[in-house]
């Protein structure tokens, strides 16, 4: 099912939810970075990424900018770049943070329509490709294979998220349709009852 509208139709409420989940993810990442052995990672670089992410999140979700649909894909572009940079600075621990890409996808299934969701998947895949190019140790067949696996994971998991959201949208539409039919039936019953009452009154009145 290709959904042309967002699952969460209240755009402002959807953005607030996204901002909350994003802030929670950043805090969790900060804690993880602090706990990692500093000799194995670029600690300053990782902290820089987290710091800039905090500033961006506050600037975007803390202002009316989040309600401007023209900038809808700006957070996805920024966070994809930030995650990619973070994975690079975390060195051998970077792959453990790949889940951050999929948190982004999971949120977008509820907030975006099909066109914007495809754009988000493309942005993430481009960011992954840039990350592979930035790492000289991955300039080989193994690096290419890893990138292909990551792309396949994005397509597969993204498709699963979308199918789940499409099913939820279908169930919501069925529920709303049933509620509209019930309301229409109740209105018809009221009209019928009022007509019968009026007719009965007219018949009893000479």
Characterize this entry briefly.
This protein is mainly α and 206 residues long. Helix content is 77%, strand content 0%.
Description of the molecule:
The chain is built from six helices and no strands. With 206 residues, the chain is an all-alpha fold. The mean pLDDT is 82.
Mean pLDDT: 82
What gross morphology would you assign? elongated
**Tally of individual helices:** 6
Helicity range:
over 70%
Biggest sheet details: none
Number of beta-strand segments: 0
Q: N- to C-terminal separation? A: 62 Å
| Helix and strand composition category | mainly alpha
Radius of gyration in whole Å, from Cα?
Answer: 25 Å
Order of helices and strands: HHHHHH
Please mark out the parts with pLDDT under 50 across 5 or more consecutive residues, or reply none.
Answer: none
* Proportion of beta-strand residues: under 5%
Structural descriptors:
206 residues; 0% strand; mainly alpha; 6 helices
Question: What is the secondary structure topology, with strand pairs?
Answer:
Layout: H1 11-35, H2 43-61, H3 74-89, H4 99-111, H5 114-134, H6 141-204
Helix pairs in contact: 1-2, 1-4, 2-3, 3-5, 4-5, 4-6, 5-6
């Amino acid at each position: 099912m290709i959904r042309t509208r967002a699952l969460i139709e209240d755009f402002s409420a959807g953005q607030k939810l996204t901002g909350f989940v994003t802030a929670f993810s950043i805090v969790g990442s900060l804690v993880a970075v602090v706990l990692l052995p500093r000799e194995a990672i670029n600690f300053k670089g990782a902290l820089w990424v987290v710091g800039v992410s905090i500033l961006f999140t506050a600037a975007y979700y803390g202002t009316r900018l989040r309600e401007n649909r023209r900038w809808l894909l700006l957070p996805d572009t920024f966070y994809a770049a930030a995650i990619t940079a973070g994975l690079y600075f975390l060195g051998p621990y970077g792959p453990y943070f790949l889940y951050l890409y999929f948190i982004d996808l999971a949120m977008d299934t509820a907030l975006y329509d099909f066109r914007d969701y495809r754009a988000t998947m493309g942005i993430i895949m481009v960011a992954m490709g840039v990350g592979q190019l930035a790492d000289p140790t991955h300039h080989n067949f193994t690096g290419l294979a890893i990138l292909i696996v990551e792309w396949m994971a994005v397509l597969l998991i993204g498709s699963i998220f979308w199918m789940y959201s499409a099913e939820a949208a279908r169930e919501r539409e069925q529920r709303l349709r049933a509620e509209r039919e019930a309301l229409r039936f109740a209105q018809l019953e009221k009209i019928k009852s009022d007509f019968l009452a009026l007719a009965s009154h007219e018949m009893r009145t000479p």
